[in-house]
Task: inverse folding
């Protein structure tokens, strides 16, 4: 993928990896971006763990993983990136979830973590303004979880959206682009990109 992007626009893409649960590795991601491109304009916190944790089966390991990827990593990445983003008058976009405000059955830890990320988005907007804007995108049914999923359940989920269909990763990318390019006076906001599921009969 990196090679394909660089064919289209030379020297515009680079691939770096890190364990996001290891906070000590996170400043290195920012340092590499700065060394590669000379500046940092936007941080998109998109990585996330997602799986059920029914009450009675919740483990400390699952709690640490779900809160680690969905809250801890975005917080410490934002902290590491803040100086560079301030210089660039940049932007942070957190991928939240509609289930951060309406809990998903059998997913109390995940839903709680996304609720925390929702609040973190608003808190960072206050902390990092006026130089840095911080917003969130809350996807609805855009991609199904990996592994088998009941087709009837998929149908019921889509039937509860106002648009009666799935979205796509492109819909989410367009929302991020909106915040980056078309919304210079918007910060601390969460945009639901959910086909109207949050208003269409949850």
Result:
């Amino acid at each position: 993928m990196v090679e394909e992007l660089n064919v289209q626009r030379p020297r515009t893409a680079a691939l770096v990896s890190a364990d996001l649960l290891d906070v000590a590795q996170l400043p290195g991601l920012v340092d590499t971006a700065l060394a590669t491109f000379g500046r940092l304009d936007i941080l998109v916190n998109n990585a996330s763990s997602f799986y059920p944790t029914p009450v009675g089966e919740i483990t400390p390991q699952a709690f640490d993983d779900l809160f680690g990827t969905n809250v801890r990593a975005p917080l410490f990445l934002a902290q590491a990136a803040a100086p560079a983003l301030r210089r660039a008058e940049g932007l942070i976009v957190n991928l939240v979830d509609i289930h951060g405000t309406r809990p998903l059955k059998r997913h109390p830890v995940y839903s709680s973590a996304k609720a925390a990320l929702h609040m973190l988005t608003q808190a960072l907007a206050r902390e990092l303004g006026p130089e840095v804007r911080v917003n969130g995108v809350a996807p609805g049914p855009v991609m199904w979880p990996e592994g088998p999923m009941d087709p009837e359940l998929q149908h019921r989920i889509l039937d509860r959206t106002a648009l009666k269909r799935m979205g796509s990763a492109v819909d989410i990318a367009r929302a991020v682009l909106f915040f980056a390019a078309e919304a210079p006076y918007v910060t601390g906001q969460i945009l639901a990109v959910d086909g109207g599921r949050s208003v269409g009969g949850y």
Summary: The radius of gyration is 18 Å. The first strand starts at residue 42 and ends at 45. DSSP finds six helices and four strands in the chain. Helices lie at 2-8, 26-37, 60-88, 108-128, 151-159, 169-181.
